[in-house]
Design a protein that fits this description.
Low-confidence stretches: none
Number of helices: 6
Mean pLDDT: 90
Helix content: over 70%
Shape: elongated
Largest sheet: none
Number of strands: 0
Length: about 90
């Protein structure tokens, strides 16, 4: 099994040890908060990419394209009846 330190090839081991120690010291609420912040950042990056590729898209179109990136084509078609291959990613 690969350790966290081994997996972070671009971070010195002693720095990664400090990061892991900090994660271990965090409360569950703090960890969930950090995940929520990172998740929102990912959504914002996705939205920015969609808006860059489709500058005239409405908010609903942007939302559908972001959902498509996360859910995949098959689920988008099944759940929303919206095909990103036809409409554009």
């Amino acid at each position: 099994m690969t350790s966290v330190t081994d997996a972070a090839v671009d971070t010195p081991g002693e720095v990664m040890d400090l990061v892991v120690d900090r994660w271990r010291a965090m409360s569950v609420a703090d960890k969930l908060g950090a995940v929520a912040v990172l998740n929102r950042a990912c959504v914002q990056l996705s939205e920015s990419g969609v808006r860059r590729r489709h500058p005239d898209a409405t908010d609903d179109e942007v939302r559908h394209r972001v959902f498509a990136l996360r859910l995949g084509r098959d689920l988008m078609v099944d759940v929303y009846g919206w095909d990103p291959v036809v409409e554009g990613w």
